[in-house]
Amino acid sequence: MWEVSMWQYFTATIVNFNARTLKFEIIWDDQDPSGRIIDYYNLALDRVPDDDEVAVGSIVLFPQGEYRGEEGVRLGGQRWHQGKITFVSKGENGEKLYSGQHTKGKEDGKWVTFRGYEPEFYSLTRNQLRIAPNVLDLLSAEASNDEESVHDTNEDAADSCDVFISYSKLNSLDAVRNNEVGNQDLPPSYNEALAAMCDPHDIRNQLQQNGLLVGQEPSGDLMKTVKMIHNAKVVIAFLSDEYANDEICRQEFQYAKKTAKKSVIPVVIGESFEWMMSVVGLLIAGELYIHFKDKTVQEMKMQELLKAVGKSVPTGADTTDAAVTSVPKKLPTPDVFVSYCWSNSNKALQSHQIPKLVGSQFADARRIKEDLSKSGDLVLWLDIERLQTTNQSAESMSMFQQIASGLNTAKVVIVCVSAEYAKSDNCRSEFQFALKSLKKPIIPVVVGEGSDWRDTVIGLLVSSQETEIIDMQSVTTEENYRNALEKIEKNVKAILGTKNKTKEKKDFRAPMPGDHVICHHHKWAFYYATIESFNAETLEYTVNWDDNDPSGRHETYKNVAIDTIPSPDQIGVDSIVFFPQGSYGATLGNNTGGGRFHQGRITNIHKDAFGVTLYDGHHTKGDDDGKWVTYKDYNYYFTNLKIDQLRIAPNAMDALMACKQAFSLDD
Q: What would the pLDDT profile of 525-539 be if each residue is shown by its tens digit?
């Protein structure tokens, strides 16, 4: 922000950052000599924010209007302004569009008569927005230059903890009564409402009583906060509307999950779930949380929280309570695995795990599982009951490992297919792994709305099976639901009763050491390489490039495709593929040149005059994602490619099998 004209922002280059004052020194791009010391929150990095960094309620900088240069003083350029996102929609190509309004007006000292001024902005793309840096990221980067600052083995005990607690003081009755919330204009009924809620202060005390070392209360020293999060073994975030609206809380949450990559336990307090529309909601989308609804459930939920903490904190009898070290009881081996998309579950909606339901309240996989279990004849595997974590951003294979193990031990898989299921990477992984790799019998149950899923790879695989498809989309009464349920149960028991006891050969198709592959290297371009090894902890391959380039040799499983022509049932509408486009020349002493591949999405499958199947689609990545799009022969679309020109990446379950020790399967 240029202090000479309040609440206007212009482009500049950073000279240095003062970690003590949290201020930047900058040089303006237009060469203006004034206002060169800037508070961190009045500056944004000139980069396209990540998808999970912008949501309803986010504070952003957006372009509006231009200014002319003044000879001998400055050049002209683009004006930027601070705004708040109020609505997120989708454009024709599925790209998110952001609308909002200025956060500052005339009463704040902002100049609002410049040419092009409008109080609101509409349908901006993510690449048109900028966000302020996370101050904790800045301090962490500053501290990394001084290894002792964060990594000191003789660190102050105050900065060492098992658990770091992140919460808004507006959710703590103790904090409000102690006047720790600043000059907040709280209504008289606020204390009364808080009295019924679970207080993070009380939960902190209970954790300490169970022998856990909990980080100190925030003191305003943000460097201390960075150190405590860095040293903590687990972070507990108390999520609420107040939490999502608190800038420091949001930054703690983002820093813990994205930068420090800590295990984060989401704890929801209160009954409002409006925060799910915020950046905080984006960051835990699809994850399980512990809901401390009010004090009537606090004791029960506290035991659940202690168990969750116990998975991340090494415990011992001399330092922890038995409740912390307790391990969930081993559940019986499942007969049936239930694979579904949360978007089609009414029970997920009722639990505030999704913003809206797609489909009928009767066509709910969770209800189907619940009702099939009542007879006591069947043991079923359902994610929310079996998974110890659903943190998909964690740097581990824990979730995939548990799902793969559940699929492997089950004898039959109920697959609740829908358009949402077919578009979900995780759902497709489960389905393809179960059917193609483990060769499990499936019972397809159609849920959700419409029939778009039939053109996808899920539809191709379902149609290739000689099995009855049970359509629950039209189920609107309890009687119809019971009839469909009986049909599902009958088919399950028929498979269990006649299943061949001989073990079928499992077919894991993930790239293995020695395989020739197509692998991501830089800016979403892919090249030929050979697998050297696979890391089961990080889901990463190490490769040797065909062109002998020594850089970028480690890559996630999602961006590695075995150099083999896929089978027709592996590619349908919405499938993610790698396709060829463009080439590159050799660089002396670095590489020998070759062809480029890119990640794309199939949008249409058709046949030519000779009956050959052809595939059309478009890039999945663009300039907003940091992809290089100016190479020779670049085109957003690809058309009429044959199947032998395409490659597909392995799914997470197959990648697990690429490392034998990842888990035990019968040979």
A: 999 999 999 887 777
